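Weekly structure sync, notes
Attendees: PL (lead), two postdocs, one rotation student
Agenda item 3: pending single-chain targets
PL asked that the sequence for the first pending target be pasted directly into the notes so everyone works from the same version. It is reproduced below exactly as submitted, 215 residues in total.
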Amino acid sequence: MWWEYVAYGAIGYLVGSIPTGLIVGRVARGIDIREFGSGKTGATNVVRTVGARWGVVALIGDLAKGALPVLLARAVSDEPWVMVAAGLAAAVGHDWPVFAGFRGGRGVATSYGVLLPMNPIAAAAMLPVGIGLVAVTRIMSVMSVGMAPVAAVLFIVLAALDVHPWPFAVYASIGACIVVVLHRENIERLLAGTEPRIGRGGTRREDAAPPAEHL
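Predicted structure, written out during the meeting:
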């Protein structure tokens, strides 16, 4: 029914809008992490600004934001498109969160979290490749930009083989496009050889507001 799309789309957006990385930055160091590093609220920027331990906390939160709305939708509806609506809304909420002035992240972890309940085995199968890319390059954006299209292709192939419904492949494709578009600056830096490696690039941004004690 139409109300399921509206209801779970709204739930997905609101859950996705919870600014996990922003909250972690406030708790860990009392800062707005959007004023540092990449200016985003994702786990990668949390690692750069407040450390790996807190980055894991943000990562788990971002994954949960994607998975939970899909699980809730699946609990009440057998319609795959309702799950897609909930998951896509969660990814959009993370990228443009209503609770954080529409300034969020790039949606990598949250988008992946959406895929987990859709097809856990396929999602888990992508992990070794992603980990391998990071281990070799030491650059998170290589994994992010590389794995999004891989996920889309994998989910399309599995849909063609009737392993899971086609709506899941549609979500993976749309999600991949959003992730790649939001990484356009990273792609430019990768091509220029200036993209920071893991743990680097967490200094205050030039366009950030000055610290309160200097006002």
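Discussion points:
- The longest helix spans residues 52-76.
- The radius of gyration is 17 Å.
Action: rotation student to compare against the earlier draft before next sync.
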